[in-house]
Amino acid sequence: MRGTSRASLAAVEERFEPVLAAAGAQASDLGEQLFALVDALDSSGSLRRVLGDPSIDGEAKAELVARLLSSADPRVVAVAQDAVRQRWSADADLGDALERLGFSAVLARAENDGTLAGVEDELFRLTRALAGQREVRRTLFDAAFPGAARADLVDRILAGRASEVTAIIARRAAFAPRGRRYVATLGRIADLIAERRSREVATVTSATELSAPQRDRLAQILHQAYGRDVQLNVIVDPHVLGGLRIQVGAQVVDSTVLSRLADARRRLAG
Asked: Mind naming one GO cellular-component term on file for this protein (predicted)?
């Protein structure tokens, strides 16, 4: 999102957070209703353009949302109206913002009942389990398969071993990829969890498991670099010949031997 959209999203989030805190276990229901609105926007270009058009009066758009969501929870109607009153740099940004609000609502339920750390761990384990499953990963965002079929595949993968919040998130990411690969969506959710826990998340790829002292030392280095606690999610990849590949958000620090060899080849070829 560009500056205007980021500012609009921040304003709506700030007003929605107290609502989520008060909603408790019902917060995930609010999230799923927001997902339904996102689906409506994604399926109707004309609706998306109208609600995202800054030249149309905000109150007129809010009235349209109220009619669309006549059977929805009043708290969902209120946040949706708040969102359409804002200015967005692009039509797609409104849908992205509502999706983020939906995921935040689902996560707020876990935060309320003290299971947010467990959800974070379950989503990371799901990501790691999919690492060697290329065809499964492809199926989970392939538009050739119905959304419900993709969501059912997630249920089979989880096999009842995940919390309800994790299942809601994992199913939603498969049901409506919205142009993103499945694991990329899970990564976005991990970032949202980190924000709610006031932490950064670093995905560390290593050829071997890191020892506890190595993890502690790396966490300390990253804490100094980013000025906040850093959650380490370590993936063991035997194809990494040495060193580490560290990704924090969109920033990648790649010190693997494989990367250095590739760089040497590029230099020779140049």
From this structure: proton-transporting ATP synthase complex
